[in-house]
Records
---
Amino acid sequence: MISLETSRLILRSPKVSDAKDVFEYCRDTEVGPSAGWSPHKNIKETIEIIKKFKREQDVLLVYHKEDKKVIGSVGFHIRNVEDYQRKTREIGYVLNREYWGEGLMTEAVKELITFCFESLKLEMLVCSHFDFNERSRRVILKCGFQYSLTYERETSFGLRNTLLYKLSSIDYFKEKINL
């Protein structure tokens, strides 16, 4: 089981007992659609997603230390065989709307980036956002990703213009040395 910690957060493997907190933000009509999926209709749907996360072992829940609750998730997904062979993962994230604008997702993603490059020894991370999702764009840029290209991505709501960003391990370690 993975557990990462920042000053305000713990990023950890999901548990079915987290379902109530996860459902709280997954049912929000502004949260899921910003990431390309429909809001959860009931807690059973959320439990099935948590079980999937546990099986695939590529999503960590974001636990807020002070509030003692799960407020989001961060993923580091292998999307295809080429990604696996090239040691590449796609970072994805979602956050309870009550916590937007506090820098928490930037904090969580930066910690996940460190884990991916320093522990998993990955060579490349990619991250994307829909063209209307300015909040996500800001997180991506604050975490050091560089714009790569724009493409159309299939979602639960049809095709969406998607901006893709990349961060290589070389750039990550160069920036770390300069700090």
---
Amino acid sequence: MAQPTDESPTEETPATGQRPRWRTWLPRIFAVVVLLAAGAFALVRLEVIGGPSPEERAATVNDAITQRMTTTLEQMPATGHAGHGATDAKGTTVCGVRVYGYEPKDAKTADDVDTVYGFHMCAVAEPKGTWDFATKFVAPLIMKFDTTPPTMQMVEATETVSYRDRIFQVLPAEYQQQALTSALEPAAMAELRRRFDAAVASA
């Protein structure tokens, strides 16, 4: 019986002297699978098919609502800021807002939002005015966008109800603590001050 030699056909070294085809194609197939998996992950991550992620959508809606609230407040005359009382201040009103939340919570765009709960600070930029002595309107508020024009309710103390109790009366429980402990975020406050100074300079 012939004994196998180094030249005898084996699985690793077939008689043809070539590697089996499946071993030649296997690395290529594996590389394709890896690329397809990476592409699928990228599609899911960027949500090209389904649109932005819930977090990205919420951030976009929040930014749009912030801009819409700011515009609505600034278009009102200083005497028209309901709940703040009468004022004879005359100048450009600049505002900053903070959104606590909105309804419906699953709104995909700002146009889907009916009600916003938040906080606002507005200041009247009069000629030669300064920030410290400017007329300001500050309070949590509820803004309704399902009316034309939008309507709002300022959350302020009354003669018989304290500010704290008023918050508990008007705002949903999930936003009450924010209303009691937070105002504008630092970046929004800095931007409001910048816009106030610019408005005074151009008054």
---
Amino acid sequence: MSGTTFAIAAAALLAGAIAARHPVTPCGGQGQRACCVGERKGPVCDRGLREVPGCSEGCGCGGGLLGTEGTSSSVCLAAGASQACKDALLAMLTKAGQSACQPPKPLLEGEHKLTPESLRAHNELFGAACLRRDVCYLTPGETKSACDAQFLRAMVTECYAQRAAEARACSDLAAQYAAGGSLDAYEKGQRAGAARCADL
């Protein structure tokens, strides 16, 4: 068997194995996986839809680049998440009893760490803003920068409303909270949110 023939046979076996694990599904429509590279001409999502990271099921590609098959890593959703989607995400977080505020490491260790009492007080003060930020991270199509900016504005507003006498120090602390949102948390949130809102 020549090297070229062997390579073609190996590619065919690999494609068959992938296809067996991930059956080919429709692509490009609302709630469907984004089309894979070379699978169709034009955008990976239908007109009016945007590609959002995260595809948990029904992700199998067919007829992609070089005729091989694989899986899509994103889904197609309407440009703006529906209110039903946002309500479902909020309910999901609330039901899970998730602690919304996760202070950045510098506030938990080292010479500038907060006392347990101060930590509880600020988590309570920023709690509603943290929950909204978590919902934003989950909402398909929202950008991390927009979520973080909204988060910071909401916290600073609380500082001036509830801690006027120490608003400047409170705002500095809010900036540290806002800087603590990781890219990994955002990307995981986008995948989970896309899966939850696929049928809404």
